[in-house]
Amino acid sequence: VVGISSDMGRSKSLNVERPTAPKRRMKKVRIGAQVSSESHKRRKVVRNAHKTTSLSRRISRKSASKLQEAQEKDLSPNSKTSKERVPIVPVVPRMKGGSRRLRRDSVLGQLVETGVLTKKQAFSALSRHPRAAEYMPGRKRKDGPTAVETLAAFGMDRRRIARIIVSFPAVLSYHVDSRMRSLVSCLQSVGLSETQIAQLVCKYPPILGLNVANNVQSKLDFFAELGVPRERIGNSMLRSPHVLGLSIAANYKSKVEYFSDLGMSKADLVRLLSNSAYVLGLNLNDCIRAKVEYFCSLGIPRDSVATVIARQGSVLGLAIPQLQARVSFLRCILKGDGLSQEGTNVLSKLPPNANSADDCEENSKLARLLQTSPQLLAFSVERNMRPKLSFYLNEAKVCSPESAGKLLLSYPTLFNYSLSARLLPRLAYLKKLGLEHRVSMNSLCFKTDAQFASREAGVELADY
């Protein structure tokens, strides 16, 4: 025992170095400990933040209820509290709907309460413009009528007013009364009445957010400088009011320069802007240039493409597959098989650059037809051209499939007449009188109602 204790004492007195772990290993252990401690701190901070948030919510709810109880007690007739009281903000009820809440004392909430908007329309306006929930009555505008009152004064019913608010909720924060007066005086200078101006506002509500002097008037002056008559400017704006929100530099001037470089005359440009001003809002490369190149591939000369666009500007708004289907159907009519299902196939199934004499002749006829009657490209195949062609071939029997192409080249307005309002009633009336032998293209299409009744049916117009 003595020996052992002496050895132990000797070992204590000696400075013996114990083996340590490698330096790299110790570094790893220290870094890992540091990372774990930092992540633990972050988790702790997040937990504390959640606790603080939930606690503050509970406190705010309790304080709000206590404040409301104190206010009710303070306003009671038996209350003995005197002197000045601290103003207490009342708890405002909210209307629930989806994931949002709508304050009943807000402008949108009051419109729902009064029946101008439905709750669905109000939340649709909020999804489009979330700041509309902050609009309170009397804060943005102290004097003058409200936006709803101003719009109603121009003859708009609740349905139109609701549509304006849903599509453009920011109108609730504007001085609509003064803006509307300036807009009316500006648009009346181009020949629009108050009723037409109300229609324009319903079609394009963001016009109420435009500066009349810097935006609206400058666009009207641009049209006037190009030579468009004032009264035609008003009708053009009524058809396409969204062009008033476009940029003059980015949209107006670039399109006008392109059409001028294409060879469009000033008269054709005036016609295009008068009838189809919305082309100013189309993409120059994806829409306009692509359609021009497609028309050139059909054999139409480039200078004639400008005339086609000026006469029927709506073709620029169609997709290439739609144009291909209609061109393919017209090509089949010229070939004599217009009622076949191949007439609706796209042009890619037909050889665009055929080398045979017959194909070259068909391409030439098609190009000539589109130059003289570009409105054919605006007609739907299934809703317009195919039913009317079937009527001419099968019911009226005024032409055969082989002669339909020649008839279309001679009278390209065959598809302009209404099937339900003109063609079918006239055919039924002649058959009723036993005058089937008088059924012809002339009697069915080209004569007025008075001429048809007196010359073909032999009756008075009132009897017809």
UniProtKB/TrEMBL annotation:
InterPro entries, alphabetized: MTERF (IPR003690), MTERF_sf (IPR038538)
Q: Please give the start and end residues of each transmembrane region.
A: none
Transit peptide found in the keyword field: yes
* A Pfam entry, by short name: mTERF
Q: Which Gene3D superfamilies match?
A: Transcription termination factor 3, mitochondrial
Can you name one GO molecular function term for this protein? nucleic acid binding
What's in the keyword line of the UniProt record? Transit peptide
Positions of region (Disordered)? 1-83
Q: Where is the composition biased (Basic and acidic residues)?
A: 69-83
Q: Locate the compositionally biased regions of type Basic residues.
A: 21-30, 40-50
Family, according to the entry, reads as follows: Belongs to the mTERF family.
- For this entry, the protein name equals mTERF domain-containing protein, mitochondrial
Say which species the protein is native to: Erythrolobus madagascarensis
